[in-house]
Amino acid sequence: SAQTKSEYELSTLTTWLLKEEQAGHLDSELATVISSIALACKQIASLVTRSGISNLTGAAGAANFSGEDQKKLDVISNEVFANALRASGRTGIIASEEEDLPVSVEETYSGNYVVVFDPLDGSSNIDAGISVGSIFGVYAPSEECDVNDMENPEKMMENCVINVCQPGSSLLAAGYCLYSSSTVLMLSIGKGLFGFTYDSMVGEFIMSHPNLQVPETGKIYAFNEGNYQGWEPKLREYMDGLKDAEKWGGKPYSARYIGSLVGDFHRTLLYGGIYGYPGDNANPNGKLRLLYECAPMSYLVEQGGGKGSTGRERVLDVCPEKVHQRVPLFIGSKKEVENVEAYLAQA
Ligand code: AHG
Ligand code: MN
Ligand code: MN
Ligand code: MN
């Protein structure tokens, strides 16, 4: 008889991964890596929620490679991610915002996946209890070199950097977890964009956003306008245009900016609009890192029919030269990103 869906049948991340495996969309080793990432996100969600009462707020007392003062939770979230990936036994190399260099994972015995991640995104918000997130991307080991060729430390480090510096177009999977009024894991394995909301009663991520499509337009923009004076003229002209009510039938665009890429991006995916972190005269490549912020988010937005651009080229086409390389980012609804690209093309 036709399989009638029992009212008690839960569609969870675990059951979805199994179905995707059965459909041949991903192999069991990649599913294991994704499950280990989901575990890390559950742990971080718990730490973030009680950070104020477990002495987990405040600075760690050191800076990361990008020159940012690390929060205690930046460092702890980094360890949580690294431990979960090590324990998966399928991860060969990891690269993190909070690690100066890529790390080769000895415990791997199969799969050898390369995982890049921002363990805690928007961490400047953590002490104020404002939404934060984690961002991740998964690559196959690079064919360019033998990831097990560990003849000497220099060669090993060179291998690790080659393995990690792959263009976003080579991603096998990417996602983020939003730690906010609800904990939502957004994920793609290249066959559409799926969202899972965490139910702490059962300890599972429950499917909540199947096949999410980004609205083609949206009258919300998320830029840090504090940097407006440093933007190139054509970008200032674009931004002025969004505020011109007459141009938009009497109602200008709305500004929404919380200073956490994961939170601002998640709203952009669901409601439409555009998130931008442009370059300015002080930082021509902007602030966001290509490898573990711009590329995974651009992979996700394209899976939902949106666009991710540096303003002059598709983010997924940019091959990183350096692990912590920054690029300008304009991402969200297709028409909104094309609009800002049209202005910048006139520059
Ligand atoms: P992170 O906390 O991982 O370093 O990322 C912070 C990023 C991003 O989350 C956010 O959109 C942006 O920094 C905010 O930068 P400004 O404070 O300069 O607006
Ligand atoms: Mn940071
Ligand atoms: Mn970040
Ligand atoms: Mn971070």
From TrEMBL:
Which principal EC class is assigned to this enzyme? hydrolase
Keywords carried by this UniProt record:
Carbohydrate metabolism, Hydrolase, Magnesium, Metal-binding
**Entry GO terms, CC:** cytosol
Entry EC no(s): 3.1.3.11
What is catalyzed by this enzyme? beta-D-fructose 1,6-bisphosphate + H2O = beta-D-fructose 6-phosphate + phosphate
Query: Is-annotated flag, keyword Metal-binding?
Result: yes
Q: Which cofactor does it need?
A: Mg(2+)
Q: Name one GO molecular function term.
A: fructose 1,6-bisphosphate 1-phosphatase activity
Highest taxon above the source species: Eukaryota
Which residue ranges does the record assign to the Fructose-1-6-bisphosphatase class 1 C-terminal domain?
214-344
**Pathway(s) per entry:** Carbohydrate biosynthesis; Calvin cycle
Q: Which GO terms describe its biological process?
A: fructose 1,6-bisphosphate metabolic process; fructose 6-phosphate metabolic process; fructose metabolic process; gluconeogenesis; sucrose biosynthetic process
Identify the residues that the record assigns to the Fructose-1-6-bisphosphatase class I N-terminal domain, covering every copy: 12-210
Does the record's keyword annotation contain Membrane?
A: no
The UniProt similarity line reads: Belongs to the FBPase class 1 family.
Quaternary structure annotation from Swiss-Prot or TrEMBL: Homotetramer.
This chain belongs to which protein, by name?
Answer: fructose-bisphosphatase
Q: Species lineage, top-down?
A: Eukaryota, Viridiplantae, Chlorophyta, core chlorophytes, Trebouxiophyceae
